[in-house]
Amino acid sequence: MGEVAVTADGEVVAHWGALFITPSLVESGLALTDPRFRRRGIAAQLLERVTERLNESDIVGRMGEPVLTHTATQEMVLRSGGAIVGAYLSYGVPVAQVGITDGMLAGRRSLAVHYIEVKPMTEATLWIPRAYEPFVRMVLDHCDWPRSFGEVHRVADTPDETALETSLDSFNKRGEIDVRTIGLDLIEVVDTALDSLRRSGAEVVHVRLPANDPALAVLGEGLTVLGLAYSVMIPSFSEAGDALVLQWIADPEIDTSSWHYYNDDIAQLIGGILAQVHELSDRGAQQRRRAGRRAALFAALDS
Q1: What percent of the chain is predicted at pLDDT more than 70?
Q2: Which segment of the chain is annotated as a signal peptide (predicted)?
């Protein structure tokens, strides 16, 4: 669904839309404004009208992607009662934002991610691997969402096999791995899917995991070894509950020179995500080098 602003001559000069991600969740903030008509409050008016329609629907939440090249959409989210829940780094091909950026962005574009509660949430327990828990806590510190953290324990009835689906956006060179069921082979199966998407040209891969499954806190501990950093936490993502999204990025050297944060909390969250991306990339490089040195050593011993 969407709303448009039209001049007296019938020219469309602004649009704000919402796209269904799941039956209970939409992505809103698909906004465009003609540069000639910016700074007139048009986007805010369209947002209000879209929000009214969403509130009358069966939607329980809406998410969106405020840009990092200016603070206006970040501010709109917070004023609407929402929260920044993370960031999609290197999300898509470079773009030019007329009137905002100085021509085409130098590298792949990155976006903040927000979540706004449309209907009251039901209580739920999160089981988050230790490496990602500080980010989720950072998000929840600024919300009154009814979420608690479960006590980590090994789950006896975890299935042997992980069930997942993959997809690839070849234009943006972005892959997605949607884990539907966590099994004992989680790390192996996700690693295989990652490798397949990388071979197909993906420069960034998102891995979506069921955050209300107690098995995630235990079996997800090894996901950092695959180079997967925190991305976002999405409450009430689907009938399965909340989703934890991780991200693998081919090139961790992300240009942040054009980024602006609305407040220190957003800067701290996204800065922490960037730091984890670099840390995991460095750790992976060190592991590969150690493996290479061991291989060379054993080759010398065999000769």
Answers
A1: 88
A2: none
Reported confidence tier of residue 298, pLDDT bands at 50, 70, 90: low
Question: What is the mean pLDDT of the segment spanning 64-70?
Answer: 89
CATH code of 124-252+261-291, in short, is 3.40.630
3-state SS of the chain? CEEEEECCCCCEEEEEEEEEEECCEEEEEEEEECHHHCCCCHHHHHHHHHHHHHHCCCCCEEEECCECCCCHHHHHHHHCCCEEEEEEEEEECCCECCCCCCCECCCCEEEEEEEEECCCCCCEEECCCCCCHHHHHHHHCCCCCCEEECCCCCCCCCCCCCEEEEEEECCCCEEEEEEEECCCCHHHHHHHHHHHHHHCCCCEEEEEEECCCHHHHHHHHHHHHHCCEEEEEEEEEECCEEEEEEEEECCCCCCCCCCCCCCHHHHHHHHHHHHHHHHHHHHHHHHHHHHHHHHHHHHHHHC
Is this model's pTM higher than 0.90 or not?
A: no
Domain coordinates in residue numbering, the chain: 2-117, 124-252+261-291
Confidence of residue 187 (pLDDT cuts 50, 70, 90): very high
